[in-house]
Sec-independent protein translocase protein TatA (Pannus brasiliensis CCIBt3594), 81 residues
Amino acid sequence: MNIFGIGLPEMGLILLIALLVFGPKKLPEIGRSLGKAIRGFQDASKEFESEFKREAQQIEDSVKMNARLEEGKTGVERTES
């Protein structure tokens, strides 16, 4: 098991140190807070990604529309010449 480059022995050592520093009563609260923070980060990341994709799609649509308008203009100019 390897999460963020940290193996099982390292995770156990981190948990033991956290248990000694914060105590058994505080550890679940810290875990909950950490879980909420990670969840908030994931939600913000997904929101950013969807907003980025939406903006990219709007730009792509705008470029396609401009290309069609330019094609229409060049077609008109050719028939007039």
Notes: The longest strand covers residues 2-3. The chain has two helices and two strands. The first helix runs from residue 8 to 22. The two ends are 72 Å apart (CA to CA).
